[in-house]
Structures are given as structure tokens and as C-alpha cells.
Amino acid sequence: MSSKKVALITGASRGIGKSIAIELAKNNIDIIINYNRDEKEAEEVVKEIKKLGVGGEAIKADVSSFDDCTAMFGAVKKKYGNLDILVNNAGALSDKTLKNMTKEQWDFVIKINLTGVFNVTKNALPLVNGGGRIINISSIVGLTGNFGQTNYAASKAGIIGFTKSLAKELGKRKITVNAVAPGFIDTQMTKSVPFIRKKIIMAMIPLGRAGLPEDIANLVGFLASDKASYITGEVICVDGGFSF
Ligand code: NAP
């Protein structure tokens, strides 16, 4: 078993999750990369992490499956014993106005984004060391709402309630639980936003640019560090001023 701290990041095969994995690896933490579909991308992230001198591996699990999550943390327990940092990052979209949204679209997003956070955290909790960190990736949309995203906004608002409640439950074990609410971040998730819509969004961001995955990873790195031991139950926006 490793003497380093150990972190598990869900949905870390690309985008924000990948960036968080690299940031935590730079802080000398062993990293477990969770992914669902893209094994090749996940293994590439593991290679990058190992170059930074820490341990790393990829574990496939669909966060919307409780059984997959049980199996994943069974494997983590066997190899690492305990966990210091959990980042609930995996997420998905299926946008439509409520008028046109199907029950399948609603269930798909809630099952990954919100039930997934339950499935992962419930299975991880027995392994999380006292003084550990749970960091949940929400969205500013969970605070502001967004046209065509009732399912996504509800899931991200649900994460905020989950975060605050769990922070109250785990304070006595000195485990902090916080949420990060990104604004418009340049990843595969936002690639399909039409050019004109992107231009409108950019004009609404005081700092005048889309966020980078690293902008989110920098904050997660801080929240995961010893320097953030007195911060819990917070929702911190990283959005270039978009939502204030
Ligand atoms: P992304 O590039 O689409 O990456 C999503 C990640 O989640 C991938 O690694 C994907 O892995 C994984 N994933 C999806 N479904 C999964 C499942 N059922 N089980 C396990 N992993 C799953 O998106 P991103 O922009 O980096 O988003 C990361 C998080 O930030 C999400 O929670 C998202 O809602 C949130 N966020 C993003 C933005 C933004 O503007 N980009 C803004 C606010 C919040 P596989 O392909 O292997 O399944």
C-alpha cells in the first residue's frame, strides 16, 4: 500500500476530470481515474500521471450503477486500503425544453449527475480517512437555472443540497465536503454549443473568455489541500464572473 495520499476522480478520462487528476498528481497524490466508456483516453491520463512520479490506474465503472460503484470501491479497498480525496466530477447533458424533454432524457441526466454522486459517495465513505476531502462538481446552472436544462439544473442544484447536508454529517470526522460550480468551460461538453450562442455567452462573462479545465482544477487542488481544512459546505463559482 502507498504512503502517499490517494484520490479518486470520477469521469477523469478527459475534460475537467482529467485536469483535476493532473493537478492532484502534481501535488504528489496517487490518482485513481474513473471512466465509463473511454478506456483508451483514461489510460492516456494514467500515463501522464505516472510521468509526474505518482501512482495511477484507471477503473471502469458507470456511476449511475450502484453495483458498479460497489465493485470499484471494493477494488480500491483491496489495493489502497483507504481514500483521502474523492472528486465527484462525472457528468452528462441531454438538453431540451421541458415541453420537449422525454422521461428518458430526464432519467438519464439525473441518474448520472445526481444519483451517481450518491452511488459513488455512499460506497466511498467507509474508506474515506478522517480529515479527508469530498469535492463535488456542480454548475452555476444549479444556482441560476438555464433555458433547456431543467434536468441538468435540477441535478446540479441537487448536488448542492447533498454537499451541504453531508458537510454537516461529516464535520465531526474533519472530512470537508464542498461543491465547485463551473461556468462555461471549454471541454467536449460545451463543443456542441452553437457559435452564435457562444458569442452571446462570452459577451456576458466579465472576464471575457471561456474557462479552461485548469481553472477548475486549480480550485479543486486547493480544496483538497491541508490549506483548505476550515472550509466546508461551500459552493464556489469558477465562472469568470458570469453568474454574479
Ligand atoms: P466531458 O468532457 O464531457 O467529460 C465528462 C466525463 O464524465 C468523461 O470522463 C466521461 O467518461 C465521464 N462520464 C460520463 N458519464 C459517466 C458515467 N455514467 N460514469 C462514469 N463516468 C462518466 O465534460 P466536462 O466538461 O469535463 O464536465 C465535467 C463535470 O463538470 C461534469 O459534471 C459537468 O456537468 C461539470 N460542468 C461542466 C461545465 C462545462 O462548461 N464544461 C460547466 C459546469 C459544470 P466516459 O466518456 O469514459 O464515459
- Give the total of beta strands: 7
**Mean pLDDT value:** 97
Helical element count? 9
- What is the third-level CATH name, the topology? Rossmann fold
Helix content: 40-55%
Tally of separate domains: 1
Radius of gyration: 17 Å
Give me the CATH architecture, please: 3-Layer(aba) Sandwich
Show unreliable segments. Answer: none
Percent strand equals: 15-25%
Question: What distinguishing features does this structure have?
Answer:
17% strand; alpha/beta; Rossmann fold; 46% helix; single chain; 244 residues; 7-stranded parallel β-sheet; binds NADP nicotinamide-adenine-dinucleotide phosphate; 7 strands; 9 helices
Tell me what you see in this structure.
The protein has 244 residues and is an alpha/beta fold. It has a single domain, classed as 3-Layer(aba) Sandwich (Rossmann fold). It is built from nine helices and seven strands, in the order βαβαβαβαβααβαααβ. A seven-stranded parallel sheet has the order 3-2-1-4-5-6-7, sandwiched between helices. Helix 4 (103-124) packs parallel to helix 6. The longest helix has 22 residues, at 103-124. The protein is globular and about 50 Å long. The chain starts with 5 loop residues before the first strand and ends in a 6-residue tail after the last strand. The structure holds NADP nicotinamide-adenine-dinucleotide phosphate (NAP). NADP nicotinamide-adenine-dinucleotide phosphate binds next to helix 1, strand 2 and helix 7. NADP nicotinamide-adenine-dinucleotide phosphate binds at residues 10-17, 34-38, 62-64, 89-92, 112, 137, 139, 182, 184-185, 187-190.
